[in-house]
Design goal:
By secondary structure, this protein is α+β, with helices and mostly antiparallel strands. The strands form seven sheets. Strands 1, 2, 3, 4, 5, 6, 7, 8 and 9 form a nine-stranded mixed sheet that branches. Strands 12-16-17-15-14-13 form a six-stranded mixed sheet, sandwiched between helices. Strands 22-23-24 form a three-stranded antiparallel sheet. α8 (about 235-275) packs across α12 and α13 runs antiparallel to α15 (about 550-565).
Amino acid sequence: MDSVWVPLFLSLLSLLCFSSVSSLPTPLECTDTSRLCTSFLAFKPSKNQTLTILQSMFDVYPEDITVENESKEYVFVKKNCSCTTNKYLTNTTFTVRANGGSVYDMVVEAYGGLALVSNLIMNGEAKVGAVVSLRLFCGCSSGLWNYLMSYVMQDGDTIASLASRFGISMDSIESVNGIHDPDNVTAGDVYYIPLNSVPGETYPMDHSIPPAPVPGLSSDNVTESQEHHKSNLSYWWILGSLVVVLGLILVGVIICICLRLSSCFAEARGNRTKDPDGKSSHKFHVLRKTSFCCPSGRYICCKSGDWKQTNGERSNSLPNLPKVINTDIFNVEKPVVFTFEEIRTATDGFSDSNLLGHGTYGSVYYGALREQEVSIKRMTATKTKEFTSEMKLLCKVHHANLVELIGYAASEDELFLVYEYAQKGSLRSHLQDPQNKGNPKSSEKDTCVIIVLCKMLCHTTLSWIMRVQIALDAARGLEYIHEHTKNHYVHRDIKTSNILLDGAFRAKVSDFGLAKLVGKTNDGEASTTRVVGTFGYLAPEYLRDGLATAKSDVYAFGVVLFELISGKEAITRTDGMVMKNSERRSLASIMLAVLRNVPDSTSMSNMKDCIDLNLMDLYPHDCVYKVAMLAKQCVDDDPILRPDMKQVVISLSQILLSSVEWEATLAGNSQVFSGLVQGR
C-alpha cells in the first residue's frame, strides 16, 4: 500500500513545484511605445505599512492613494503607466531597510506580486540602504473604459466576486484579460480590472502617521553598517583626501580675501590722492549684503554714488512715467518709485563693470540702491508694452520662486525695473558658460595665478541634487502662475537664462515681459498671439498656430530639464553625440534620439555621452533616468499628452527625495560628498 502512495506523493509534489515556477505573472503587452495613461494598482498593505511608507514604496503623493473601506484592507494607488519595451509598466524604487536575505524575497514580500522581478534582483543579496529600481504591473485601456487597475488574485477570489466587488460585468474582466474559462483563474497572478471612475475613498488622515524609517539608521543594522565601513579601507582614503582638499580650499579662500582687501584699499587711497579736494562725485563704501566671493565680482568694496534717502516710501505720484502707460496697472499695489538719478548712481553711471547681462528687451545691471543689492533692467521707452506686462503681473503675483519686483523708474527715453538681486546669476551661466560659470564680467584683468585660483575655488559646480532642486523651484513658480493666481498666465519665454539663482542656489523664474493672460477656449485656456520667445524652447503647436497655453511653457520646461542633465544649450551641435557630421539641432531632438536606446535605468550607459561631465559620475542612474523621461513627456509633440506643471512638481518632488536618499548612501557620509560637490 505504501508503495502506491509514495509515487503519487512525489508526482503531486513535482506538480506543485512546476506550477509555482511557471505561474510568475507577466505584464500586459502593448504596441504603441508613446502611450501614456493613468492607471491604478490594488495593494493589500500589512499593518506596519503606513501611508508614509506606501508613498515611498510607490513614489506617489498622499492624494494618489485611496482606500476601499474604513478597515483599509485594500488601498488603490494611482500611477502613470507607459508602454515600455512593448509591455505596460510603471517605475518605482525600493529601499532595502535590513541586512540579510535576498532582494527577491524582500520585494515579493513588500509588493505582494505587483512587481516585475528581474533576474538581476532574483540573484541579488540584500544590503541595507541599497536602492533598487523596480517595475510594477499596470495597464492602459483601449478606450472602452477610463482606467485599468492591476489586481493580484487572492485565494477565494473569483471573476464573479471581483465583478460584484467593483461594480462591473464579468464579460468586461474576461475581455480585458483574455479569459476563456472564468472558473480557471490562478491565485498570485495579476489580473486587470476595467474601471470608469477612480476607485476607493480618500485615505483617512485623522490619526498620526509615524515617519518612515530612515535607511541604515535602525537599531538592527547600525552595528553591521559601522563594521562594514570600518573594514572598507578605501573609505578612509577618500575621507583623508577630502580633508586635504578642503584644507587647500580654505587656504585659497583666505588668500583671495586678503588680496581683494588689499587691492580695494589701495584703489581707495589712489582715488583720495587723485582728488585731494574731495570733489569727486563717487566714494567707496562697504555694502552690508555683499558676499566675499559673490558672482557679481565686486567682492567687499563696491563703487557707488551719493543719493538722498527716501526710506523706501511708496509714492502715489508716478514721476516721468510715459503717457502711453496707463496708471491703472497699479490697481492692486504700487511699487516703490525711484528717481532716474538714484538709478544712475546705483549702477555707477551704467558702467560695464556693473553690467550683468543682456535680456530679450534690455540690459540688466547690478545696483546698490538704498543700502540693498538689486538688479536693474534698462529698457528703451519704445518697450512700453513689455514694461507694462511685467509690471501688471509682478504687482499682483508674489511667490518664493518668482523674482520679486521692488520698484521702477522712468526718464524721457528710458524705462527701468528694479528687482531683487540674484547673487548666483542665471542657471544658463552655470551650465553653459565655461568662463564665467555664473560670474558677470569683471573689468579688471587677473594676471595673478592666486587670483585665478581663487576664482576657480569660488566657482560652484552644480551637483545633481542642486539641479533637481533648481528644477523643482522653477516648476513651482510656473505652477503658481498657471493654476494658483486669480487670473492664469503663460510665461512664453521659459529658458535657463530666465531662471535666476539666489545665494543658496534656490531658483526664481524671471523676465515676465512676454507673459500673457490666458482666456477660456473650447480646448482649455489659451492665448493666440504672434510667436515670441526663444528658438529651441518653442512648442510645435505654438510655432504652427501661435496658440500659447500652459502646455507651451511645459514644453520649454522639458528643454530646461534636458539642459540640466546634459549641460548643453537648447540649440546645440551634435559633435560626438548621435550624428557623425556636426550640425546644429535642437537639444530636445538629440536627447529624444538617445532615449530611444535607453529603455530603462539599467541601460544608462547608452546615455552617458549626453550627461554633463561636470557631474563627475556623481549621480543616481535611476533618478537621472526619471528626469530624462519626465523631460521626454514634457516635449511630446501632442500637448494633450504633456503633463501639467502640478504633475511635474509632484514627479520632481519624488525624484528629489530619491536623490537625497541616494546621497545618504554615498560612501556612508552624505555631508562630506554633498559639501564638496555643492561647494559649501
